[in-house]
Design brief:
There is one protein chain. The chain is mainly α and about 500 residues long. The protein is about 45% helix and about 10% strand. The protein is built from 18 helices and 16 strands. Helix 6 packs across helix 7 (about 190-205) and helix 13 (about 295-305) crosses helix 14. It is globular, with a radius of gyration of 22 Å. The relative contact order is 0.17.
C-alpha cells in the first residue's frame, strides 16, 4: 500500500515476543494493538482531504536522488532498512533486544498518564512553543500582547515565525554545563528550554533586527553581521558557563542571513516570517469553510530549499549539493552512493513542527499531510531506547566511544564524570542510532495508544507522543541514570548544528 493511502482496519494486532504485530483477537492489555492508519499515525489535520487537494508524490530517487534525499518521504523509507536489519540482528553497532519492548511501551505510557490522564486531548503537538513556556509562564502570549493592538494578525504571525526560526536553529545540544538566567523571572534554565528563553530575550532586545525602531523581527541584514561574541553575550556564556558549538551556532545564523536573500521565499525585507506570504499564496493552498488548508510538503519545501545554503559544506554531498543532515550508514544494503545515505533533517523537521503551531493558533491553518513527518532523531528520544535496554551498543563500539570520551574530557570545560561513550555526529554509531530512533518511535505510537485505551480520533498523534512521552521520558531517564550531568547515554561531539 502506498505512502499516501488512507487505509483503516477494524482488525486488531497483538504484540508477540518479537515486538511485532500479528493479526489476532483482543485478549489483554499486552495485546490487541490497533494498527496505525499511516506510517506516522493519523493526526487531527489528516482527516479527509478536500477533493481538490492532493499531496505531491515523492521525488523519483533514481531520476533525482538529491531531491529525494531532501524529501520527507526519504526519512522514513531509508531508515526502514536499518530497522529491518535490527529485526534480523544484523545491525553494525547495536543489539536490538525485543524482550524490552513492552517495558519501553509501559514506561512511555506511565509518563503520559502521570501528566495528562484522563485529558489526553489537551496534549499539545511537539513544538518550540512549549519550551518558551518553561516555568509555567505564557511567554509567547505575553510577547504577542506586547506587539500592541495596531499590529495585525499577519504581522504577529510573521514575528513569531521570525523568532521560532532563529530559536530552533540555536537549539542544537548545549552541553552539560551551560545555563541561562531568564530576564523575566530570574530563574535559571538549561538545555532546550534555556536556549528557548535566551533566544526570546535576544529577540526582544533586537539582536536579530536591523531596524532600531522595531526589535521584534529577524532579518538578513542583522544576521549577516552576527558574531560569536554577540551571541555569547546573549547566551550569558563565560569560562564558568560554557556552551557546546558557539561558533557553529553563530556561523549557522550568519548563513541564514545570506539564505534570506532569496526573495521568492523571504520577501524584499529578507525575513523568515515572509514565508507566510509564500505559503498562503501558494497554488496548492486553498480556502475551505473559511480556513486556509495548507499541504505540509509546501512548508517543507520552503524550509528545505530555502535553508539549504545554511548547512556546513562538510556535510554529505551528492552531485555537488550539500544534503544537510544526511549521512552514510554501513547498515544500508549495497547499492549506489546515494543508496547508502540516510537522511534525517532533524532541525528542519523540528522547525516544521514548531512553525505549524503559531500558524495554526493565529491564522487558523489546517495542515494536510502531517503524517509524513517522523519522530525526531535526537538524543532524548534516542536515549530513551538505550536507557530502557531496547537497544545496546556493541562492546567494541563502547570501548571506542569511551576512549573518545576520555580524550575529550582532558579539554578545558569538558565533563569527566559519569563516563559514557562519545562519537562525532557523522560516526556510523550515531547514524545507526538515529535511524533506529525514527523507526522505533513509529512502532511505539500504536502500542502506546492501545495501552492508553485510545481509539479512532482519540488516538495520540506522533507529535503528541513526542511531546508528552518519549522526549520527556528520555530526559527523565537520563536524570535518574546520570544525575550529575543528566547527559544522554551516548554523547555527541556537537558543532552547534546537529541535535
Amino acid at each position: 500500500m502506498g505512502l499516501f493511502s488512507k487505509k483503516s482496519s477494524s482488525k486488531s494486532t497483538s504484540i508477540n515476543s518479537n515486538g511485532m504485530g500479528h493479526k489476532g483477537s483482543s485478549t489483554s492489555v499486552n495485546s490487541s494493538i490497533k494498527s496505525p492508519t499511516t506510517p506516522g499515525g493519523m493526526s487531527f489535520s489528516d482527516r479527509s482531504f478536500p477533493a481538490s487537494m492532493q499531496l505531491p508524490p515523492p521525488p523519483n530517487p533514481h531520476a533525482d536522488p538529491v531531491a529525494y534525499l531532501r524529501s520527507l518521504h526519504a526519512i522514513r523509507e531509508r531508515t526502514k532498512y536499518v530497522m529491518d536489519a535490527a529485526e534480523k540482528q544484523q545491525l553494525t553497532n547495536f543489539i536490538y533486544d525485543r524482550t524490552k519492548w513492552e517495558e519501553t511501551v509501559r514506561y512511555v505510557v506511565s509518563i503520559i498518564k502521570r501528566d495528562y490522564a484522563p485529558d489526553y486531548h489537551t496534549i499539545p503537538p511537539h513544538g518550540r512553543w512549549q519550551h518558551f513556556e518553561v516555568g509555567g509562564r505564557k511567554r509567547v502570549d505575553m510577547l504577542i500582547a506586547s506587539f500592541g493592538a495596531e499590529t495585525d494578525t499577519i504581522e504577529k504571525t510573521k514575528r513569531l515565525i521570525d523568532l521560532f526560526v532563529v530559536s530552533v536553529l540555536l537549539d542544537a545540544g548545549a552541553g552539560t554545563k551551560w545555563t541561562y538566567k531568564s530576564k523575566d523571572n530570574g530563574r535559571v534554565y538549561r538545555r532546550s528550554e534555556g536556549l528557548a528563553v535566551a533566544s526570546m530575550d535576544m529577540f526582544k532586545d533586537g539582536l536579530f533586527s536591523s531596524d532600531p525602531k522595531n526589535p521584534y523581527r529577524v532579518d538578513g541584514s542583522a544576521l549577516k553581521i552576527l558574531m560569536p561574541d554577540d551571541l555569547a553575550r546573549g547566551l550569558q556564556i563565560s569560562p564558568a558557563n560554557p556552551i557546546d558549538g558557539l561558533h557553529g551556532r553563530a556561523g549557522l545564523l550568519r548563513k541564514l542571513g545570506q539564505a534570506l536573500d532569496n526573495k521568492e521565499y523571504f520577501g524584499l525585507d529578507h525575513r523568515p516570517g515572509n514565508i507566510l506570504d509564500y505559503i498562503m499564496h501558494h497554488p496548492t493552498t486553498e480556502q475551505h469553510e473559511g480556513r486556509p488548508h495548507v499541504l505540509v510538503p509546501t512548508l517543507w519545501t520552503v524550509l528545505c530549499e530555502g535553508l539549504a545554503p545554511i548547512w556546513p559544506q562538510s556535510r554529505t554531498q551528492l552531485d555537488g549539493c550539500s544534503l544537510g543532515d544526511a549521512w552514510q550508514c554501513s547498515t544500508m544494503p549495497p547499492g549506489q552512493f546515494w543508496e547508502r545515505i540516510v537522511p534525517f533533517h532533524k532541525l528542519t523537521q523540528w522547525l516544521t513542527y514548531s512553525l505549524m503551531v503559531p500558524m495554526t493558533k493565529l491564522m487558523d491553518v489546517v495542515w494536510l499531510g502531517e503524517h509524513l513527518l517522523t519522530g525526531l532523531p535526537e538524543y532524548r528520544n534516542g536515549g530513551l531506547f538505550i536507557d530502557t535496554g531496547l537497544i545496546t551498543l556493541k562492546p567494541q563500539h563502547v570501548k571506542r566511544g569511551l576512549d573518545a570520551y576520555h580524550a575529550n574530557s582532558k579539554k578545558e570545560g569538558q565533563p569527566s564524570v559519569e563516563v559514557v561513550p562519545m562519537f562525532s555526529a557523522e560516526d556510523d554509531v550515531i547514524v545507526e542510532w538515529r535511524a533506529l530512533t525514527v523507526q522505533l518511535l513509529d512502532k511505539l505510537l500504536p502500542d502506546v495508544n492501545h495501552v492508553l485505551g485510545l481509539h479512532g480520533p482519540e488516538q495520540l498523534t506522533l507529535a503528541q507522543m513526542l511531546e508528552a512521552g518519549t522526549w520527556k521520558g528520555g530526559r527523565e531517564l537520563a536524570e535518574v541514570s546520570r544525575p550529575n550531568t543528566k547527559e544522554p547515554p551516548i554523547m555527541i561531539l556537537s558543532d552547534g548544528t546537529v541535535f
